[in-house]
Write a structure and sequence with these properties.
2 domains; globular; 7-stranded mixed β-sheet; 10 helices; Quinone Oxidoreductase, Chain A, domain 1; homodimer; alpha/beta; Rossmann fold; 16 strands; 6-stranded parallel β-sheet; 355 residues
Chain lengths: 355, 355
């Protein structure tokens, strides 16, 4: 019997507002290998985490829950002191009797912000965890974001929510982020006119020069978002892929064309309580027959295999670029997470836990 | 050659805020019959108006136009001093050479708030005007609202925008209005659980006792719309047919179920500038995957014949009730219109111009 130490990240208490380092702690627990089974029917799957995802939506789960979304499983509250689940890639240490998993195999799914993920039997049914058939020509880290839930979010949101037609115009906010950078690339490959916004000149340059956006702008340089969008979309916006909410959503609605569509992926400006909610002009929504639709990647699991094959092809032949911002070591998770709300990341924020 | 006097309603200037009688004037013009043609190619259709529709959306067209909807034909600005177009039923005085119209025939379409509608040749292409095959068992006034654009709005909005499933719950605001009263009845006939809100106890009673709503409440009696909706929808709202916008929309979003749908038909609370815009919780929209869709009846002209046959059947066999609030004489149009914004009407506001 062997004992391993598992370091993991927890919140000290609920977080309201923007997160800071002092909100987090690194805890240590001891895991016995092979895992002790309480009865013959109970077992554990243990995964050694390799790469884990760091996403803005986690902040909503860290808040003291009072709003209606607390009832929704995708927004299940994170409990202070406990391990925090997240999408990631790891290697099986113990298969826990699951016939679909074998020791040392790669898996992708719901892991934790920690060195190991321990999954008890009673969690099995609800915990997404599958064998990963990784393409060896691609970095393993791609499977956390571009070929993980960020990618599926971009794919489902663009193809299924926006329902694009060739030649239409697309506006993407937080366009250099994990999801936005992929939406813009899918949209260009599909034949749309794509303009993105981001918060630094470096990001704007990247969108135009590396990711092939038709145009891009720094929203911090604009005093009037409505005029900015008029300038970048003289013929109006057909689709808006919204990652930020707030004032940008209002301005996008004001510049939308008839039968425009808004895919509401996130509202990062509202997560920290720092920004204000979007006050929408409902007359515009009526007269322009705008559709505003919230969605989650999980709704589009039925197009997962299409998404993986299409995206893998594009990545292999260089038609798409996967942007990653990789931190190293479980201790860096809080820093990486905090950075999301300060606009530090370019592309997918990932922490590499082990080699 | 005969001369007839045509009295019609015009606005004196653009209206901002709630309308009042002093915003309107009754003007008189003289029409020569047969209409004088300028060239052999120009002709006029002349219709004697019988019943004309009075609708809240007209107020948006009376404003000094600055917002983006001014570019949209359905919201074309109304010009001070000029005749104001509206949906209505009339009788052909001169067919103007149109082979599909004959003298003395009934027509339905875009008429005016006046005694006569004079349509010049150059308007032909854009002006909706069709022969009306009215069911003689039904009052002609039904064709202005329930079997006109209000009905099509309710029908298209409920069946095509809400996409109902049997057993789902529907919330309807302004439920005793021209559109809301029909939505609630379609929804009940379809097999939904329907709750409506209105602004007087008399209207609430009517919804429950005459129109068969499962429940109804007076929103003016509620201090907290969010709690009110929780009480009336303990299992949440699947569809919200929104006629009012503002705070009611916010409360409805807060009480929606996963995959809920909002059909945005109007935002009367925002028309007069008296109410405030809806400040939506976009996190709710994302996590509950809510779809908010603006629409206009004109988008559903393809289901016009289904709508007419279904609704005519329901009206004839007493399964649906057409509520009308009928004023008499062209001079009463301003009063009827102003009443819409004071909650005076029950059902469709109509002015009978002639017998």
């Amino acid at each position: 019997m062997e004992e391993v130490r598992n370091k993991f990240v927890a919140i000290k208490g609920h977080i309201n507002g923007a997160p800071s380092e002092s909100d987090f702690e690194i805890k240590t627990e001891t895991i016995s290998l092979p895992a002790i089974r309480n009865t013959s029917k109970e077992y554990y799957v243990i995964v050694k985490n390799l790469y884990v995802s760091v996403d803005p939506y986690q902040l909503n789960r860290m808040k003291a829950q009072s709003s209606s979304q607390s009832a929704i499983s995708f927004a299940a509250p994170i409990i202070p002191g406990h391990a925090i689940d997240t999408y990631g890639v790891g290697r099986v240490v113990e298969s826990g009797g699951r016939s679909d998993l074998a020791k040392d195999e790669l898996v992708a799914g719901l892991l934790t912000w920690g060195e190991y993920t321990v999954i008890a039997a009673e969690e099995e049914g609800i915990r997404l965890l599958n064998k990963l058939d990784a393409d060896e020509a691609l970095p393993l880290s791609h499977y956390v974001g571009t070929l993980g839930f960020s990618g599926l979010t971009a794919y489902g949101g663009f193809y299924k929510v926006c329902k694009p037609k060739k030649g239409e115009s697309v506006f993407v906010s937080a366009a250099s982020g994990s999801v936005g950078s992929l939406v813009g690339q899918y949209a260009k490959l599909f034949g749309c006119h794509v303009v993105g916004c981001a918060g630094t000149q470096q990001k704007v340059d990247l969108l135009k020069e590396k990711l092939g956006f038709d145009d891009a702008f720094n929203y911090k340089d604009e005093t009037d978002l409505n005029s900015a969008l008029k300038r970048y979309f003289p013929k109006g916006i057909d689709m808006y892929f919204d990652n930020v909410g707030g004032e940008m959503l209002e301005a996008a609605i004001g510049n939308m064309n008839t039968f425009g569509r808004v895919a509401v992926c996130g509202a990062i400006s509202e997560y920290t309580g720092g920004g204000r909610g979007a006050s929408l002009d409902m007359l515009d929504v009526v007269y322009k027959r705008i559709t505003i639709q919230g969605f989650l990647a999980a709704d589009y699991l039925n197009c997962y295999s299409d998404f993986i094959s299409t995206t893998t092809d594009h990545l292999r032949n260089g038609k798409m670029h996967a942007l990653s911002d990789i931190y190293h070591g479980v201790e860096t998770v809080p820093l990486a997470f905090i950075g999301l709300f300060r606009g530090h990341n370019i592309g997918k924020m990932i922490v590499q836990i082990a080699n």
